[in-house]
Design brief:
This protein is mostly helical. It contains eight helices and two strands.
Length: 208
């Protein structure tokens, strides 16, 4: 990297750290909700796509200034809008490093470091859930993919027990499983079922 570009990146990263620290420090006193809605933000932020690049620090400054009224203090102890997982200091700092390292964790050859950390986390999760040795542990991106992955595994097992192998034949001609779920099930369960080929209409599955 060119010396001037490296200096600019370092300066920009430090400014972002200051912005982030100021926001984190304000959580104890700032309003839990946002000051404006998304429609107002779109009106203020929406501009024609630029034809030329803008220096990174100016992009960040404009982003911080533009979105500030719409930020929700979901990390505040006074926020009760949804069940949110809070950012801890260690996870926030590790997330920054993860972005800076820019590792591709798809296979071990792409990043031995990512593969090692993932294996250790999987072992810890298995031990904490008392599932060590019971199967494989997969790390997903959030609740939607967690439900999708769990239902995909269940679909495979149920059809296998019914004498149908999904791997060569797919769902064409497969027995129709019945899905039992609560009426209070999260919306991601229904969307995961649709993505897995169960449909989404009232006759596609049963609620109990």
């Amino acid at each position: 990297m060119h010396a001037a570009a490296h200096t600019s990146l370092r300066s920009g990263l430090h400014s972002v750290a200051d912005y982030a620290s100021d926001f984190a420090d304000s959580l104890a006193t700032r309003p839990a909700g946002s000051a404006v809605g998304s429609a107002a933000l779109r009106r203020d932020l929406d501009q024609p796509c630029p034809e030329h690049g803008t220096p990174a620090e100016i992009v960040i400054q404009e982003l911080v200034r533009g979105v500030a009224p719409g930020l929700v203090a979901s990390g505040s102890p006074r926020y009760f809008g949804f069940v949110m997982s809070g950012t801890t200091p260690a996870s926030l700092m590790a997330d920054w490093l993860t972005s800076a390292w820019d590792q591709n964790a798809q296979v071990e050859a792409a990043s031995p470091a990512a593969a090692a950390i993932e294996a250790i986390v999987a072992r810890w999760v298995a031990r904490a859930s008392r599932a060590a040795g019971a199967g494989l542990v997969g790390l997903v991106t959030g609740g939607q993919m967690a439900n999708f992955t769990a239902l995909a595994a269940a679909r495979h097992t149920v059809l296998e027990r019914a004498g149908w192998d999904l791997r060569p034949y797919g769902l064409f001609g497969a027995p129709a499983p019945v899905v039992l779920m609560s009426e209070a099930a999260h919306a991601t369960v229904r969307s995961a079922l649709r993505m897995l080929g169960f449909g989404g209409g009232p006759d596609s599955f049963y609620t109990v």
